Amino acid sequence: MPKKNKKSIFEIVVAWPFRIIFFVIRVSLLTGIIIGGWYMLQTVGILTVNVPVTGASMLPTLPEEGYVGFQRYYQNEILEKVLPQSVQKGDIVVFENERTHKELKEQNKESTGFVKRVIAIEGDAVEIKDGLVYVNGQKTPEKYTLKPRSTFGGTEIQDCRSIKVEKGKVFVLGDNRKISMDSRQIGLVPIADILFYIPFEKQTDRFGKNWRDPSHDFDTEHESLFDTKLFIQLLNNERIKQNLNKLQYQPKLEKSAHLRAEKMLEFDEFDSKAIKSGYTMKRAMSDAGYSNIVYGEFPMLGYYDAQELFDAFLVQPGAREFLLNEDYDEIGVSTFVGELNECPVQVVVQHLAGYVPPNYGAGEIQNFKDAISKMQDVQPGWQRLESFEEFYQEHKSDVDRINEIIAIRISRFEKIINQMEANKWLTEEQNQWIKNDIQLSQEQNAIADKLNK
C-alpha cells in the first residue's frame, strides 16, 4: 500500500486554506479599490450619479421628469484633505432630511430628496424684496430662473427681512420660484444633508441653452408685470371649457378693485369683511358708481404675470370655484404696487359681479297685495272725516297724518309689487321702505286708536 506524500498533505491541510484566504483578500482589496476609484470618479465628476428629478421647481434648468447626472458630495475630513470639496453659490444640490421626507410624503412622492440651487452660503446676508434676491446688499442677476422678479418670501423667510446664513448651512431656492418649496418654507439647509451636487461652473455647457438673458431684469423694478387682457382671455377660455358664459370687462369694477387694493395695503387687511378699514367691496363699488346683485373679490399678493396668476388661482383653495361661478358675468382687475410694512409689494384684486333674478314666490307678492287691499278698505272712512267740520278741526293734524300714512304705504307697496312682478330686485330705497313700514304701521294704528276713543 503506497504512503501519502507529506507535501501533499501539507498543501491540503495548510497551504490551500491560506491560498483561498489570500485570494479572498486580493479580491476584496481589488473590489475595494474599484469601488473606491468609482466613488472618487463620482466625487470629482468624471463619473456621475443619475439622480431622479420630478416636478417643475427647477425649470428651466432641469427637466420635470427624468434623471440628471450629479457629482457625489461627501462629508469626510480625511477625503477632504485629498480631494477638497465645497458647496458654492450657484451650485445645484440634492439634499435629504426629516423635513424633506415629510413634505414629499404629504405630496405622495418618493423620498428622493429636494433638488435646489444654492443662492447664499454661510456668513452671507440674504434678503428678498420686490421680487428680487439681495445677497450682501447686492441684487443678484439670475439668468437661470424661469422668470425675472419672481422671488417672494414664505413662512420661514419673509419679504424685506434680511437673514444671515448660519455656519454649516446654505440658503437654497428653486429656479422656478413661484412654485418651488425651498428655504423660504423649510429654512436653511445643513451642508451635512447634501448628497449630490453640480458645480455652477459645470452647468453652462449642460444647461446654459435653457437660460434667459437677465440684462433687463432690473428695468421693471416697482412696476406691475400684469397683463389684464391676457388674464381675462385665459379665464374666459377656462370658463368656456366649463360651459360657462364669458365674463365682460367692466371698467367700474376695475376702479372698485383699485380702491379696495389701496385700502388693503394701507391697513394690511385682505379679508373681505374689512373690519379694520370699514371699506368693503360694496362701498368701493358705490364709490365707483357701480352696483349689482351678486359680487365678490379675490386678492393675491405678489408680482404675478397673467399666466402665473391664472395658474395660481386654479390651485388656490376656493379660487377655482370663485372664478368659475356661473352667477358672475362681469369682471374688473386692478394691480396696485405699493408698500406693506415698508416693503415693496404688488396686490392683484379681482372684482366679479353678476345679476341673478330674484324669482319671487307668489306668496311674497300676494302679501303686499293683501296689505294694499286692507288699507284701501279703511282709507275712505278716514278720508270722510274731513267732511265732519267740527271733528276735523279739533283733530286736524291726526286726521291729515293718518290719511298721509295710508297714501304713502299704498303708493310704496304698489311700486314694490310692480318691481316684483317684473322679477327685478328691489332697490335700496324700496328695501328701506319695507323696514320703515313697521314704524308707519304702528303710527297709523296709534292714531286710529286715538281717533276712535
UniProtKB/TrEMBL annotation:
Record keywords: Hydrolase, Membrane, Protease, Transmembrane, Transmembrane helix
Record's GO cellular component terms: membrane
GO molecular function, one term: serine-type endopeptidase activity
Entry annotation: catalytic residues: 57, 116
Pfam families: CAP (PF00188), Peptidase_S26 (PF10502)
Protein location: Membrane
Topological relation to the membrane, as annotated: Single-pass type II membrane protein
Biological process per Gene Ontology, one example term: signal peptide processing
Top-level taxon in the UniProt lineage: Bacteria
CDD domains: CAP_bacterial, S26_SPase_I
Domain SCP: 233-334
Location of the Peptidase S26 domain: 41-194
Listed EC numbers: 3.4.21.89
NCBIfam families given in the database record: sigpep_I_bact
Name of the protein this chain belongs to: Signal peptidase I
Originating species: Candidatus Roizmanbacteria bacterium CG10_big_fil_rev_8_21_14_0_10_39_12
Phylogenetic classification of the source organism: Bacteria, Candidatus Roizmaniibacteriota
